[in-house]
Design goal:
With 971 residues, this protein is of the alpha/beta class. Among the domains are: 1-129, no CATH class; 153-195 and 203-343, Alpha-Beta Barrel (Anaerobic Ribonucleotide-triphosphate Reductase Large Chain), CATH 3.20.70.20; 744-895, no CATH class. Helices cover 40% and strands 14% of the residues. It is built from 30 helices and 25 strands. Strand 1 and strand 2 (50-60) form a beta hairpin. Helix 6 packs parallel to helix 7 (205-218) and helix 15 packs parallel to helix 17. The chain is globular and about 105 Å long. It is an enzyme of class 1 (oxidoreductase). Belongs to the ribonucleoside diphosphate reductase class-2 family. Catalyzes the reduction of ribonucleotides to deoxyribonucleotides. May function to provide a pool of deoxyribonucleotide precursors for DNA repair during oxygen limitation and/or for immediate growth after restoration of oxygen. It catalyses: a 2'-deoxyribonucleoside 5'-diphosphate + [thioredoxin]-disulfide + H2O = a ribonucleoside 5'-diphosphate + [thioredoxin]-dithiol. Residues 736-840 form the TSCPD domain.
Length: 971
């Protein structure tokens, strides 16, 4: 077939004319950036064992340590320690891009050799500058001696025969071995309530799921890259549907019983393999008929697999309730909405869509595959905070072209999958960093403005993809299955266009994007009518786990931000905690001044959320809502965002609707019902802490031993001991009769006052007197009492920094501007007083831990990227100001204070990284998920990484490890 297409293209003498958009003529993309060498050493945090080491690898200087670590460990090919091992990002990108370019030339995609060169340079530029990434199998396999598998997602099929069932096991095993995942629908297999031709009773699909689950648990896909990922689907009218629904919920009860008996039931634990069905995501395929029966409270028929006759009726609401109860108990099953899926199907004449890949974003024909690529949306946000829709569309054109070319040379795990993929050429372009983009633009994730922006971008992406697909069809021909499905394909294109026409734009930015999307869909209809289409499918929204780290994305796929505070690895070793860099960008866009931004960011660094952040308006809280924490998004916020994007996707969306632990079964029923009504193709839910088989922060040997002792009924002998009680009492350190004091006059929000502070001989603050209001007034009396209380506390040893941390950021009137150049804005008189005391009596190191800096230090930060003073010793702000001047005048090059950690001065987007107060350091945290737990005291219910032992975090319907990039999914 490929040779026929190539011959046709040559006969036409046609080919793509490529326009240089990103790269510069005469300059190779590599020569336009600065490169540096790094050492990549990876350890298992649980054992301390070094699991990977490669020194002197080469990456652009703006790539984060995490990105370079994950690419080195996951994608560089060749044995470590040999000359065959890749050591530079240039080698990796060249290996892939040159393979794509050669295939494009061989199959007549380009009009001239010059167009091929432009394609190569543009694709290289986009990859090296982190504008997009192909899915992992491309990086694993393309350009290597291995089979050129480029697809991450597969859909298999199984029929009602033992040969087919055993073949299912075999095909899944090979797919897992290659580092990918697969899904299939088991509904063709006869139920346990039907007879075999021999007269016996059939085993039913659930029994065969056990064998497939054991196989998946044995095979670590891609070596030790990730655990096997799989999806199992059963139609709601299958007679064994109730047994299927309850499989994992019953196993969860078993896990609890075994855990309480002292067995190691953590995910990856020694004893977890004794339970079944843990390696697959389960989904029920529901029809509109069933959902209407749920609404109406009527009965629903379960049908024989052989004859299609109703062999049993059930109460639809009762079955729907059981589905929701099981999901409440263990997060499975999810729902897939069969009629909605097939209403948007471009190839119904070939066959129905019956299943999905493991993460639910790819939905197409049985025995098919999809290769994915995702764009980094934040890269298209310009300095003026407008989204560059035209540039985004140009990037989509290049990427879709490359993705289609890959099918020309790709290998596939089975002959059937290869034939279907070549005949239908399904692609899965998508994006990451939507949550970060919306935040940076000042748009709430759960807001009409956020949803309209997401809808417009998704519409532009898919419209541009199908436009390029129609252009490619005019050059190298439509996909082989197009002729028989032409009317259906064009009907779906009109449905996309109609959905685009009803998008309600709310502001200038989404209006600009939507205008381009409207033009793209008009071109799709026009060109498609003339040329047909090269690809049966174009777009999905995948989890973007590992490749999200490769692009240094703050958020994955369509997800909101996981946490406002991030864990960042540093060049030269070590790590630091930073506040998400989109936060200051968003605050500045909304009109907050530098001092206000600093105060809000410092508050977020300490608390992990924005509630009661100083100076932040409550109406702006929603912009900083996250997946978890104090301002966690409501479940329907997730559903509504998916509903905004779904009409503009060929496939579906990998995303989990998060619910709090307190969520009820009724709330899960509502999520499932509303998802159907809003037109989603699939919905998965996760209720916090619903699964037992997750690692507990202190679930070590002692916890298990205690549980075992309790189960065995053992009782510790009681021993009576005489304990001598020792009481430790603080000693008051009184001030000397004659002491140095300082009087400060101040104005806060127009209110005037005076503060007198006295110090011990060693310079430590010992007393404070405040004068506000007239003598004898209530306010004056309260201030006198407060002054005495604070002074006595100081003399009894309460550290000043404790008072500062407690009383700064208190918000009440009077508040506002002050006459103090070091504290320009204050949330209250108390906020001002203790900031001033910190500046007068605490050293720079102590103040930096509290996020309090003088005007001079803030200015120095803007100029040099560091707050550090140009002196060797530390002291209060006033002492440092006096000491710095003569040293600077002398030109003492060695006068700068050395930072205690090797801190990167640039974040992943090239802007200045913000150091956060050391009093909220990460401790034993190794990832953002662990850091989130330490800051908020809230558990992140996710597994430990099987490779490096750190806690993973949610990404779509899967989990991803920030430490090494491993995922529990298929992309």
């Amino acid at each position: 077939m490929t040779e026929t297409v190539s011959t046709r293209a040559k006969a036409r003498g046609k080919g793509l004319k490529m326009e240089r958009v990103f790269s510069t003529e005469g300059t190779h993309p590599y020569d336009a950036i600065t490169w540096e060498r790094r050492d990549v050493v990876q350890q298992n945090w649980k054992t301390g064992e070094t699991v990977f080491e490669q020194r002197g690898v080469e990456f652009p200087d703006f790539w984060s340590v995490n990105a370079s670590t994950i690419v080195t460990t996951k994608y560089f090919r060749g044995a470590v320690g040999t000359d065959a091992r890749e050591w530079s990002l240039k080698q990796l990108i060249d290996r892939v891009v040159k393979t794509y370019t050669k295939a494009g030339i061989d199959h007549d995609y380009f009009a001239t050799d010059a167009d091929a060169e432009i394609f190569e340079h543009e694709l290289t530029w986009l990859l090296v500058n982190q504008y997009f990434s192909f899915n992992s199998p491309v990086w694993f396999n393309v350009g290597t001696p291995s089979p050129q598998q480029v697809s991450a997602c597969f859909i298999l099929s199984v029929d009602d025969s033992m040969d087919s069932i055993l073949n299912w096991y075999k095909e899944e095993g090979f797919i897992f071995k290659g580092g990918s995942g697969a899904g299939l629908n088991l509904s063709r297999i006869r139920s346990s309530k039907e007879l075999l031709s021999s007269g016996g009773t059939a085993s039913g699909p659930v029994s065969f799921m056990r064998g497939a689950d054991a196989s998946a648990g044995t095979i670590k896909s891609g070596g030790a890259t990730r655990r096997a990922a799989k999806m199992v689907v059963l139609d709601v009218d299958h007679p064994d549907i109730e047994e299927f629904v309850m499989t994992k919920a019953k196993e969860e009860d078993k896990i609890r019983a075994l855990r309480d008996a002292g067995f190691d039931m953590d995910l990856g634990g020694a004893d977890i393999t004794s339970v079944q069905y843990q390696n697959a995501n389960n989904s029920v395929r529901v029809s509109d008929e069933f959902m209407r029966a749920v609404e109406d409270g009527t009965e629903f028929g379960l049908r024989s697999r052989g004859t299609g006759e109703v062999i049993e009726t059930v109460d639809a609401r009762d079955l729907f309730r059981k589905i929701s109860e099981a999901a409440w108990a263990c997060a499975d099953p999810g729902l897939q909405y069969d009629d909605t899926i097939n209403d948007w199907h471009t190839n119904p004449e070939t066959g129905r869509i019956t299943a999905s890949n493991p993460c639910s974003e790819y939905m197409s024909l049985d025995n098919s595959s999809c290769n994915l690529a995702s764009l980094n949306l934040l890269k298209f946000l310009k300095d003026d905070d407008t989204f560059d829709a035209a540039l985004f569309a140009k990037a989509v054109e290049f990427i879709i072209t490359a993705m289609d070319i890959s099918i020309c040379f790709a290998d596939f795990p089975t002959e059937a999958i290869g034939q279907t993929t070549v005949d239908y050429r399904q692609l899965g372009i998508g994006y990451a960093n939507l949550g970060a983009l919306l935040m940076a633009m000042g748009l709430g994730y759960d807001s009409e403005g956020g949803r309209s922006m997401a809808a417009a971008i998704t519409s532009l992406m898919t419209g541009t993809s199908y436009k390029r697909s129609a252009e490619l069809a005019g050059i190298v021909g439509p996909y082989a299955g197009y002729a028989r499905n032409a009317d259906a394909h064009k009907r779906v294109m009109r449905k996309h266009q109609a959905a685009n026409d009803v998008v309600r734009v709310l502001h200038t930015e989404d209006g600009r994007v939507h205008k381009l999307a409207t033009k793209a869909w008009a071109d799709v209809i026009k060109l498609g009518e003339k040329n047909g289409f090269r690809n049966a499918q174009a777009s999905v929204l995948a989890p973007t786990g590992t490749i999200g780290f490769m692009m240094d994305c703050d958020t994955t796929g369509i997800e909101p931000d996981f946490s406002l505070v991030k864990f960042k690895k540093l060049v030269g070793g070590g790590s630091m905690q930073i506040v998400n860099q989109t936060i200051p960008r968003a605050l500045k866009k909304m009109g907050y001044q530098e001092e206000q931004v600093e105060a809000i960011v410092a508050y977020i660094a300490e608390h992990g959320h924005v509630v009661d952040a100083p100076g932040l308006k409550t109406e702006h809280y929603e912009i900083f809502d996250t997946a978890m924490g104090a301002r966690a998004l409501k479940p329907m916020g997730h559903v509504r965002m998916m509903a905004a994007a779904q009409p503009f996707l060929s496939g579906a969306i990998s995303k989990t609707v998060n619910l709090p632990e307190s969520a009820t079964v009724e709330e899960i029923e509502d999520v499932y019902l509303q998802s159907w009504k809003l037109g989603l193709k699939a919905t998965a839910i996760y209720r916090d802490n619903c699964k037992v088989g997750q690692p507990l922060s202190d679930g070590g040997g002692k916890a298990k031993k205690d549980a075992a002792d309790k189960a065995a009924g053992s009782v510790e002998p009681v021993e009576t001991k005489v304990v001598e009680k020792v009481v430790y009492a603080p000693v008051r350190k009184r001030l000397p009769k004659s002491r140095v004091s300082r009087t400060t006059s101040f104005t806060v929000g127009g209110a005037e006052g005076y503060m007198t502070s006295g110090a011990h001989d060693d310079g430590q603050l010992g007393e404070v007197f405040l004068k506000l209001g007239k003598q004898g007034s209530t306010l004056a009396g309260v201030m006198d009492a407060f002054s005495i209380a604070v002074s006595i506390g100081l003399q009894y040893g309460v550290p000043l920094e404790t008072y500062v941390s407690k009383f700064t950021n208190l918000r009440f009137e009077p508040a506002g501007l002050t006459d103090d150049p070091d504290v320009r804005m204050s949330q209250s008189i108390m906020d001002y007083i203790f900031r001033r005391l910190a500046l007068d009596y605490l050293s720079f190191e102590e103040r930096s831990q509290l996020g309090i800096y003088s005007a001079e230090e803030r200015q120095r930060h803007l100029e040099t990227g560091s707050y550090e003073p140009l002196v060797e010793e530390t002291g209060s702000a006033s002492e440092l100001r006096e000491a710095a001047a003569p040293l600077v005048e002398q030109g003492d090059e060695g006068a700068r204070v050395e930072t205690k950690v090797d801190v990167e001065t640039k974040d992943t987007h090239g802007s200045e990284a913000r150091e956060v107060p050391a009093h909220v350091t990460t401790g034993e945290a190794k990832t953002t998920a662990e850091l989130f737990e330490k800051l908020t005291g809230t558990a992140v219910d996710s597994p430990l990484c099987m490779t490096c032992g750190t806690k993973m975090r949610p990404a779509g319907s899967c989990y991803v490890c920030e430490g090494c990039g491993s995922t529990s999914g298929c992309s």
